[in-house]
Amino acid sequence: MRGLTCKETGLVTTNTATLPVLSPLMGFDEASAIVVDFLKEHIPLGYWAVTRYDGYRQLYLEVRDDVYGVGPGDSHAWDDSFCVHMLAGDGPQIAPDAMAVPAYRAAPVGKAIDIGAYVGIPIVHGSGEVFGTLCGLDPAAQPDELEENAALLALLSNLLTMILDVDLARSEEARKRERAEIAADTDVLTGLLNRRGWERAMSLEEDRFRRFGHPGSVIVIDLDRLKVINDTLGHQAGDDYIRRAGQTLTGCLSREDYIARLGGDEFAIMATDATPEESAAIVDRIYAEFAAAGVAGSIGCAPYTIVAGFPGAFDAADKAMYEEKRRRRASEG
After folding, report:
1. Are 120 and 153 in contact (CB under 8 A)?
2. Which of 19, 95, 260, 308 is 20 to 30 Å apart from 192, CA to CA?
3. Could you tell me which residues are beta bridge partners of residue 271?
4. Are residues 89 and 187 in the same domain?
5. How many CB atoms within 10 Å of residue 94?
6. What is the pLDDT of residues 8-56, one digit of tens each?
7. 21: closest CA among 44, 9, 37?
8. Residue 255's pLDDT band (cuts 50, 70, 90)
9. pLDDT surpassing 90 at residue 159
């Protein structure tokens, strides 16, 4: 698209800016990269980003930053941000002098880093739910003419919202197809995914989580007493114990979560769209349901992060599980 006239403010360095070419056919991550590149060139604040509110953090999905040293996958608490105040109506979407706005001056993020100018434009689902923001920051206050970019910023945010909704719908359809495909990779004893199915699920979900910044966790479970049951009651009793554990775990999860038996007495869960608090509640529910079913095990949980990905989350959850097993053995001994 062409013909958007931008005034020469000292912020926009060209008299006529050609809007970036954005299409619903492209992914949200590609569109986000195009938009922040465009803004970094035409409204050259030190930091531009597309961010995601995932229920507890403000997560940076696409970043162009040469002042604060942050990158994709970094985050801070949502309640500490300027954006939470902007969305509440306590501060403007464009603040050339952010410290002149009481809500921004009091925000914890403004005490942690120097923020002289702030831009925060909501990115909203078609349902009206806030996905995140198109966010710009600079350590120095800017001329009041920064506000003259309001129409441009709103247009770019609306375009990102349109592409987001289309890409989310497309991604969900792909997820349904993928689930059907990996359903064949099942463990004979429990009917859950086997290790191959688990690894395929992690690989397929990795791109989706990186693109949208979805919250999620990996939970690793290692059953107790299986060897004792096999040695004293026989392997049929051991198989029944494993099946009962699998059925109990399935009952603790939503249909969108992935659950696998990785082999022997080890299970793994990918809790999709779950914050750390929600994942901790899942762990508590598993312990309670295990106790009711006569199953015992040690559980470790770790959140997904863009930096470490699902392999890193699995390793962290596995480590946490073994630490929990050692702690329980020490307390019982």
Report:
1. no
2. 308
3. 217
4. no
5. 21
6. 333 343 334 688 899 999 999 999 999 999 999 999 899 999 999 988 8
7. 37
8. confident
9. yes
Same domain, residue pair 190 and 94: no
- Positive or negative, the CA dihedral 111, 115, 121, 125 is negative
SS3 332: helix
Give helix 28-42 / helix 150-182 axis angle, nearest 10°. Answer: 160
Smallest CA-to-CA distance from 154 within 4, 3, 7, 53 is with: 4
- Looking at residue 17, its pLDDT comes to 61
Q: Dihedrals φ, ψ of 191, to 5°? A: 80, 0
- Does 175 fall in a domain? no
pLDDT for residue 15: 39
Backbone torsions φ then ψ of 290, nearest 5 degrees: -60, -45
Report residue 331 as tokens: 């307390």
Same domain for 149 and 196, yes or no, is: no
Structure tokens belonging to residue 137: 């920051």
